[in-house]
């Protein structure tokens, strides 16, 4: 049974169904099943390969679970000082504690470390999160990186061949110098894999200390002018065109205005500003002041 795929006739695997219902991530849902905390139509579920169909009664820890939600995706501008986890053993503030109220249970697509900023994609669909994290998708993660030290442009170009640092092999990295003032410089860095603290470790290997790291793009999704701390739902058209997902969920735009990106970190506008209207993906998120145009 575990090798059989989800089909309309068979239904959906229960761990995936629970993840889309917002109960837990798929991995945590599998743990709940292993603990005997999940029942289907009154019987304890013994394997994550169990299938759920419309009308089935799923109960987790004694509470009935509603139907799985449509897949939804959000852009979030992560500020410095938050960890990308639901719970932190050290008690540090987390991304999910700081999200505006009224959002479904979300998981992150990839991570940004404590002192990194910028675009973090969030979804209510654990399966989608894993799919978008895979390097095999070929999606570039693009960053603006401020470094302290003497930049050797030849060394940056060499990163395109890949590099091994302290026994860890990193894939090709595209890095270029954008501006320099004294011993400080801004770089644009693009990579596909994104291992833990990859940019910081590679730059340190080149004798550079990263003083600020901002992710400005993840595949086709851009940070743009989304204010720090704000979250905006990706519209249905983009979900369909970029991910092949049809979703009837309403868009949500929420957030608070905090310190904006410095001018040199914001990507150039592709065209002059235009009037905002209902459904415009560039309209001002809730809680942010509209720009004067």
TrEMBL record:
UniProt region (Disordered), positions on chain: 247-293
- Which SUPFAM superfamilies does this chain map to? Alpha-L RNA-binding motif (SSF55174), Pseudouridine synthase (SSF55120)
Q: Which reaction does it catalyse?
A: a uridine in RNA = a pseudouridine in RNA
Q: Which InterPro entries match?
A: PsdUridine_s_RsuA/RluB/E/F_cat, PsdUridine_synth_cat_dom_sf, PsdUridine_synth_RsuA/RluA, PsdUridine_synth_RsuA/RluB/E/F, PsdUridine_synth_RsuA/RluB_CS, RsuA_PseudoU_synthase, S4_RNA-bd, S4_RNA-bd_sf
Give the superkingdom in one word.
Bacteria
Outline the extent of the RNA-binding S4 domain: 12-71
Pro residues bias locations: 260-270
* EC number of the protein: 5.4.99.-
A Pfam family annotated for this UniProt entry = S4
Q: Which UniProt keywords apply?
A: Isomerase, RNA-binding
For this chain, the family text in UniProt reads: Belongs to the pseudouridine synthase RsuA family.
The entry's protein name is Pseudouridine synthase
What's the source species for this entry?
Pararoseomonas baculiformis
């Amino acid at each position: 049974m575990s090798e059989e795929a989800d089909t309309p006739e068979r239904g959906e695997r229960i761990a995936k169904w629970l993840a889309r219902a917002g109960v837990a991530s798929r991995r945590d849902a599998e743990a709940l099943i292993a603990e005997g905390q999940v029942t289907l139509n009154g019987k304890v579920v013994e394997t994550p390969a169990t299938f759920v169909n419309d009308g089935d009664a799923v109960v987790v820890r004694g509470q009935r679970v509603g139907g799985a939600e449509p897949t939804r995706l959000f852009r979030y501008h992560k500020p410095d000082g938050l960890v990308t986890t639901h719970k932190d053993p050290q008690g540090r503030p987390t991304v999910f504690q700081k999200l505006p109220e009224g959002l479904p249970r979300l998981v992150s697509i990839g991570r940004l470390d404590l002192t990194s900023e910028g675009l973090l994609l969030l979804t209510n669909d654990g399966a989608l999160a894993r799919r978008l994290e895979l390097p095999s998708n070929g999606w570039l993660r693009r960053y603006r990186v401020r470094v302290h030290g003497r930049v050797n442009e030849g060394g940056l170009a060499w990163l395109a061949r890949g590099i091994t640092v302290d026994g860890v092999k990193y894939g090709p990295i595209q890095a270029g110098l954008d501006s320099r003032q004294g011993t400080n410089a801004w770089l644009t860095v693009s990579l596909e894999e994104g291992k833990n603290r990859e940019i910081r470790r590679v730059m340190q290997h080149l004798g550079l200390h990263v003083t600020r790291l901002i992710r400005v793009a993840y595949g086709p999704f851009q940070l743009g002018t989304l204010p720090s701390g704000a979250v905006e739902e990706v519209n249905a058209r983009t979900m369909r065109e970029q991910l092949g997902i049809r979703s009837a969920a309403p868009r949500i735009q929420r957030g608070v205005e905090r310190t904006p990106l410095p001018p040199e970190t914001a990507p150039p506008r592709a065209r002059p500003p235009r009037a905002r209207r209902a459904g415009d993906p560039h309209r001002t998120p809730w809680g942010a002041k509209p720009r004067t145009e």
